[in-house]
Write a structure and sequence with these properties.
CATH topology of the largest domain: Rossmann fold
CATH architecture of the largest domain: 3-Layer(aba) Sandwich
Helix content: 25-40%
CATH class of the largest domain: Alpha Beta
Radius of gyration: 26 Å
Strand order of the largest sheet: 8-7-6-9-10-11-12
Order of helices and strands: EHEHEHEHEHHEHEEHEHEHEEHEHEEHE
CATH superfamily of the largest domain: NAD(P)-binding Rossmann-like Domain
Number of domains: 3
Shape: elongated
Length: 413
């Protein structure tokens, strides 16, 4: 069903949208359904020099993980309104510069959680049955039919470190297979089903047959799985990592597998990964028994990419048409009801005292009737959305731009 487009002050056909890195067609479809016709898609990422050639003319940009948005890009993109990372991470964006220039940056952190959770469960079953070694033997022409070190997952205990969106889905799916579920998180979380929280990673390691990691990359998680951590796991227990590559010390893991302390591992992320499919890949755990290595494909399913395309594009459309910045990582988050029979204006400014007073003073001097006003700040900038009656003149935008510390002003409708 076609979405009803909202009329905007700036003609929608003049809003230029660039989507890079083969973003799913669902994103372009969202824009077209809302009346935006100038949508260009490219399969490849762009280096900074190429990207800067587009900078002066684009209003919205969609990227994945390979395109870098630098300080230079934001400073040379005067018309730029918003960017979306059609993936989970935003490390490829200079967020400080995006904030300073009043550009909203969005991502889609939860659209691929089901895909990741399913692969965790698949890896869990394959590790417990030793499928990788049997599969490799069969490809070599060897018949390796045996029950040794081959187990059902039913009745076994899976320990989940990080009980957020992905970890909790793994919990539900694992329990559906008859597994016992333990979890640890630094934030108190509501247990789903019969899952049990534990007080420490040490307790989780001691009790789990499989440990799966779902934590961010940070100073506290870097190499958290090291020689000491692996020694605390049950002898022969399995390790799964589909979170971040730097949370596991791969040399320590290699030694633990060779010694038999760790019974196997499944890894989808690595400290260093090739930039393209044409580059070679090396890791210390290659060639080891009962080790599954996948090329960072946890969220790489058609379904996940379609959902990411729709979700990230809708976030940008909502920001364009209503000023709703929910999910923005740079502009303060505001969620606003539509105000009929009114004009809506957006004002982004440096977060210094007195700016809101100057805005209200400007509106008062023009005898503007304010129907609604919303303000939110972060440590760098303030974001004000206000609705005024339709009697205002076009000069109000110019007057607002003259206010000291102003970064961006937009008239939505």
């Amino acid at each position: 069903m076609r979405n009803k487009a909202i009329a905007t002050s700036y003609p929608k056909e003049k809003i230029r949208i660039l989507l890079l890195e083969n973003i799913h067609a669902s994103a372009a479809e969202v824009f077209r359904q809302h009346g935006y016709t100038s949508v260009t898609g490219m399969k490849q990422a762009l280096e900074e020099d190429e990207l800067l050639k587009h900078a002066a003319g684009i209003h919205l940009l969609g990227i994945r993980s390979k395109t870098r948005l630098s300080k230079t890009f934001f400073e040379k993109s005067p018309k730029f309104i918003a960017a979306a990372c059609f993936c989970i991470g935003t490390n490829q964006v200079n967020m400080e510069s995006a904030t300073a220039n009043g550009v909203a940056v969005f991502n889609s952190p939860y659209s691929n959680t089901r895909s990741v959770a399913e692969l965790v469960i698949a890896h869990c079953i394959w590790l417990m049955r030793g499928i990788t070694d049997k599969n490799n033997a069969a490809h070599r022409g060897e018949w390796k039919k045996e029950t040794k070190n081959s187990h059902e997952v039913r009745g076994k205990t899976i320990g989940i470190i990080g009980y957020g969106h992905i970890g909790s889905q793994v919990s539900v799916m694992a329990e559906g297979l008859g597994m016992h579920v333990l979890f640890y998180d630094i934030i108190p979380r509501l247990a789903l089903g019969n899952a049990q929280p534990v007080k420490s990673t040490e307790e989780l390691c001691r009790r789990s047959d499989v440990v799966t990691l779902h934590v961010p990359s940070s100073a506290s998680t870097r190499n958290m799985v090291n020689e000491i951590f692996l020694r605390k796991m049950k002898k022969g227990a399995m390790l799964i990592n589909l979170s971040r590559g730097d949370v596991v010390d791969l040399t320590a893991l290699r030694d633990a597998i060779i010694s038999g302390q760790t019974g196997g591992a499944a890894l989808d992320v690595f400290p260093a990964e090739p930039d393209s499919n044409l580059q070679p890949f090396k890791t210390p755990v290659q060639g080891l028994p009962n080790v599954i290595l996948t090329p960072h494909i946890g969220g790489s399913t058609e379904e996940a990419q379609q959902q990411i395309g729709t979700d990230a594009a809708m976030r940008m459309v909502q920001y364009l048409e209503s000023g709703n910045s929910t999910g923005s990582l740079s502009v303060p988050e505001l969620s606003l009801p539509l105000q009929h029979e009114a004009h809506r204006l957006l004002h982004i400014h440096r977060n210094v005292p007195g700016v809101l007073g100057d805005i209200n003073g400007t509106l008062s001097s023009m005898k503007m009737n304010i129907l609604g006003q919303y303000l939110k700040t972060n440590e760098r900038i303030g974001y004000v959305v206000f609705d005024v009656d339709k009697k205002h003149t076009r000069s109000i935008v110019d007057d607002l731009k003259k206010i000291k510390h102003t970064i961006k002003v937009r008239s939505l409708y």
